[in-house]
Specification:
The protein is of the alpha+beta class. Helix content is 29%, strand content 27%.
Length: 456
Amino acid sequence: MRNEKLDERMLELKEDIFTSIRESVAIESVKSEAKENAPYGEGPKAALDHILALGERLGFKTGNVDNRVGWIEYGEGEEMVGVLGHVDIVPLGEGWDYDPLGCEVHDGKMFGRGVLDDKGPTIGAVYAMKAIKDLGLPIDRRIRVMIGTDEENGSSCVQHYIKVGGEKPTIGFTPDAEYPVIFCEKGQIFWEVTKQVENPSTVRVLSIKGGTAKNVVTPKCTMVVEGDFDFPASENISVTKENGNTVIVSSGKGAHGSLPHLGKNAAIQLFTALKENGIDLGGDLQKMIDFVLDKINLETKGETLGVYSNDEETGETSVCFGVVDCTEDKLFFTLDVRYPNNSDHEKMIETIKASAKEYGLTAEVEQTGNLLYVSKESELVQKLMNVYREYTGSNEEPIAIGGGTYAKAFENMVAFGPIFPGDDDVIHQPNEYGEIDKLMKSFQIVATAMYELAQK
């Protein structure tokens, strides 16, 4: 399983690997205005050009699908191992101690946007392929490193690749998440629940607004009521008078939509306080609030909504109330529902639509994310787990998550690395970094995994 010569060759390539990572990280490849031959802006295009030039310099076949997805390939054969990475990044953001484009090394850590997500691992995979080539290791399947340029904004790059007939991998992984292996990613249904106001509230509520994104627990919610509205302040709810109106601000705690139980929903906290103080706003608005309290409330598993399911292998349903935006004319809020492998997707949709209708609301599916499930007994999961255990001595099992990764782009693909269990979660954060020794270990793991998957 573990090939010492492959490990040694990767270490010999260490300086070249990190030089290439520095070159790539220096490119600010944040999505921007589309230009000719640069559908996601000049930054992502420059980063794609850089890695494709690297592939050519290392002696590989390369391809470029409309400047959205590139690929670098080695070997022969009808079947193909796909390693799917990306070179676009989230905005640099504030709060960095070091240049986010500089790849400075401090205490064995390389700092920079994209070092971990996902330029470092993607470039590591290219050099892993070089190590396999340099050693002349026998393979039965071609190996293709696929490079996306819009992963951080919805993965339209890979959708385009598939739409225009790009070759799909037979088997593969994305080095864009965590170890050991993510064998299941829950299905996702994003909802928009709305109503045009026909029956105004008896209390004149000018607006209720809260939330930052549909996949984040509402961290703050503000209700503005005309005139002097009697509402008691509390530890997490402030009440002020501004411009002849009463402004009520509920402060909660945000959390990722896949883990809503870790947050404190400010909107539901506000609605609960209204009820506890015997305040009925009346009209369609009150019916909306009743729906939220009756069917969503602070319970985050979908039990009161009637969509709960529990799978021993892949977990439980989760429901996240995200954005609320109500005016005197229209009511609006979002739900993020995630479900395990044993859920009835169509029945869930019917149930939520029917529940909303009972309260005079219209619930529509705004977006879906397919459930990813690859059996723990499959060739893919077994080979990756065997490699991981060989290198780490760990007895950990494959994991199921509520979030979604790039692996959902293709069938028979899972997320594999680069983050080890217990490591700090620095992806998308200021001071994103990769520990150089751990990155090299991950690159060696990936090289062996690529080699194992390339053998039938």
